[in-house]
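Usage

Read records sequentially. Each one opens with the input sequence:
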Amino acid sequence: MDNVIAYMPSILQGTTITVAVALCSVVLAVIMGLLGAWGKLSDSLAANKICEAYTTLVRGVPELVLMLLLFYGGQQLLNDFGHATGLWGYIEINHFTAGVFTIGFIYGAYMTETFRGAYLAIPRGQVEAGVACGMSGPLVFRRIIWPQLVRYALPSFGNNWLVLLKATALVSVLGLHELVWESFTAGRSTRQLFTFFLITLLIYLVLTAISDVLLRWLDRKYSLGVRRA
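and closes with the structure output:
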């Protein structure tokens, strides 16, 4: 118990980093998902092909392999390009930025299909009715498309978020001192790996439970009009 108390500040600091990585990653994933859905739904053949290749590649490669490839290969390509062009010298990407970018990039592919499916679920007649009433494109999106897009996307988005939250554990292989890294370090130092990973398990369960409460609140908020009807 004394060892747990001694290492608890490090565990809590690692938890904070884990939550920060998850939140920043989901923001990036949502942005990439919206862009990917727009590309797959647009009339542009080039956009369709690029977004299709993106989602197929990401969903077909294990997350850990893709994460290591993006971190080490991407940094090497960036430095090789800078050396060849003379635009910059050696660049070392910090572990937090690398973790956020790789997780956001990976789950952006899953968010793409989430938002694409949600958009296709919106009745076309409602959008046409908004245009017929004289609404501008941005107003149609804000008043008709977006509220329903969120409602239809929430179930799949919730699943993606929970999986993304657990995937932050993989960032430890990049050297980021998040929850799993700190727990492993503490367990190895005290020879109590089971105890510290049990604490890690409980922390992830708490984060998942909090996420579930917030997702249920969002579902009630965006389904209010449907329940009234």
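Summary fields computed downstream for this record:
- The chain has one domain: 2-228.
- The mean pLDDT is 87.
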